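call fold(seq) -> tokens
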Amino acid sequence: MTLKELEIGKSAVVTQVGGEGALRQHFLDMGMIPGAEVTVVKFAPMGDPMELQIHGYELTLRLAEAEQIEIKPITILVGRNSSGKSTFLRIFPLLKQTLEAKTAEPILWYGKYVDFGDYDQSKTHNEKEDIELTFGLEIPDVSKISTKSIVFVDDRDKKMEATATFSLKKQVVSSINVSIKDQNFRLNFNSLSEVDSIEVNGNTFNERYFTNYNRGALLPEIVMVSDKNDQMGVSLYRYFINEELLNQIVQYLKRYSNSNTKDRTIAAGIRPELFGSHKEVLKHLTNTTAFPEGMRKNLNKASVDDENIKKINDLIVLASIPTIMSFVCGQITSEFTGVRYSKPLRLNAERYRRIQGLSVNEVDPSGENLEMVLNNLREKEQKAFSQWTKSTIGCEFSTVQKDGHVSILVKDSRTNIKENLVDTGFGYSQILPILLSVWKVNMSENSSVRRFLYGYIGGQSADYYEAIEQPELHLHPALQAKLIDVFSQLASEENGGKIKFVLETHSEAMINRLGYLINKKKLLPEMVNVVIFDKDDTGNTKVSQTKFNEKGQLEKWPIGFFDPDEV
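ret:
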């Protein structure tokens, strides 16, 4: 049993503390240690966070901390056939194809990357009416962002951790729930994908403040209307406060001012970037120089538990929703459009393929456009790729054109013999699409233009995800190990740490190689997460996590996965 499963009023003794690094230390610092008795006091009105009593005092804990799966630089998915590994991995290309296409439904279940069928087929083993997608995100701190102009965020430390849950019902997004710091808000949508109601910290507001343009997309654009007569909304009003909403905040704040203070004076100090935790909102208000000194002194005496302050806080959160949703949706978009997906069966090698006059830049999931991508590389780039593969796996790849056709040649470093890809065996045709995909991503991330834009100007690029099914197919164990070496090197902090690998594998050789690299101090154990998939007797998927220790040993070996005696 986990804390999330403990009922209100029930007590239990902590036997084990999960998490890693700073997160685990955070639990321990709160007194969450083995042997401690903990009691669930209550849940927040929207279910998150939960309030606990431990060592005679109360604390709050987010449900996302009680139950989470973390995508680390290298995430390994293992388990028996049909246990759910591939389904989990394919969520990455599923969201990528959804975000790339214009669709009338929230999710494009069938697209150019993966095929989930439709909504009903995707939830065959899910008894819940809704499908939920939950994302843990880092977004810019709204309180540090200028709302008067478009600016670069020049301080990467000014971040807020957010949890966003999208609930899907048939062809619409039924709700979006966002938790940031100790604030929670929920947008409820009707069958026409229109904002129906808003809940802020458990208090319900009607939809009259907002509209949204995207009628079916997973990421609807939420826009604040300027006034009650504005039915369409204006994009700029994402950064300003609705007139009616502004007036409500002013009236509550007037209770802390004298009778001579003008409404416009109070209104001048109210802006969406006042958002923060309950304590931070009160601090922002106290330090707002636009307010008269006497008003600030009165606010300084107030408590976050005062009913007026609670109402002001909820209204400020309400006013901040368009800005926050813009950042949330923007972060999700940038993360998942950076996904590269490789299917389990890749390139079917051909002796030659006809040259097409297409500008092809990205290797498709099956690798069928591999010749075109290679051929479109500049001569300097093709040589660089060939030298890189020589240094990593011991062979060079190049292309040759003849009579309107292009062929891929492979040169083995040991024999110095150059052969057509078809004549080298099936393994190279399976590994080449993967190598070219990760090399191009790495070159793009480390380009001088990208370093300038995201380094000197001060922005921050999103991570790239390489989601690969069975990278070991048709590779002998030594080549499998070399491929893991490639992934480890590209995922390392020394290389920028911008590429994350999600690998679904049945290879003991690959898992053992990760342990070897950790043992030899060539890879940090905290960079790897191993997720074990299994099914119970009812057919439901069970997911557990394990990790490598500093000696390169798995703390929990997937019993029955490699040993036939345990099957």
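The CA atoms of residues 30 and 59 lie 8 Å apart.
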